[in-house]
Amino acid sequence: MNEVLNTIKERRSVRVFKDEQIKDEELQEVLEAGLYAPSAINQQSWHFTVIQNGKVLENFTQTAKETFLKSGVDQLKAMANNEKYKVFYNAPTAIIISGDTKAANPEADCSAATENILLAAKALGLGTCWIGSMPYIFGNGNNEALKNELGIPEGYTPINSIAIGYAASETTKAPARKENKVNIIK
Ligand SMILES: Cc1cc2nc3c(=O)[nH]c(=O)nc-3n(C[C@H](O)[C@H](O)[C@H](O)COP(=O)(O)O)c2cc1C
Question: Keyword NAD on this protein (predicted)?
Fold first, then answer.
């Protein structure tokens, strides 16, 4: 099968990672793949923050837990009360994909970039998991101090994020796809 198609079909979410850090060249390759994503009116409205510092990752989880506890949402509160919960599992690298709130469609742009990164990582033998909790952590103007500490540019908000590292567990083949999801009109 074509290599690209194979990568798309074989990518699975990885949630258990080795401690070993990914190589700088691998990081650069996956970020470049993100930068080459399509975007509305070619605005390239994304910004990538890479965290490879254990203390910063830990602080991120603590801030997320405090926010979840105050959220009033039972599922988020349960995550905050789970001692083992880490926003990025135990991945050695996290990538936060922030979008320019004034752009035409930052959610779509950032999601195209996110998927490009997941696929590039798979092609390089890295494991990833898309982490969708950013709007819960940073929505409603929450955690501006953390945003500033992370150097997220003014006018951008975290939309998606990715845990990335070397997989410490095998992933199984993707289950069969749901039916009736396509209509072809000829
Ligand atoms: C928008 C979005 C948000 C997601 N958020 C999370 C998340 O917060 N935590 C997590 O473990 N997986 C998250 N995932 C991964 C999905 O759970 C996963 O893609 C799905 O179960 C299909 O499994 P696969 O990626 O192995 O094909 C997210 C995926 C998407 C597209």
Answer: yes
- Pocket test of ligand 1: the residue of 88, 114, 130, 170 to mutate, having most ligand atoms within 8 Å of its CB, is 130
Q: Is residue 141 part of a domain?
A: yes
Task: Please give the tally of structural domains in the chain.
Answer: 1
pLDDT tens-digit readout, 85-141? 999 999 999 999 999 999 999 999 999 999 999 999 999 999 999 999 999 999 999
User: Which run of H or E residues covers position 98?
Assistant: strand 93-100
At 64, which CATH number? 3.40.109.10
The answer for residues whose C-beta is within 8 angstroms of residue 153's C-beta and 6 or more apart is 47, 98
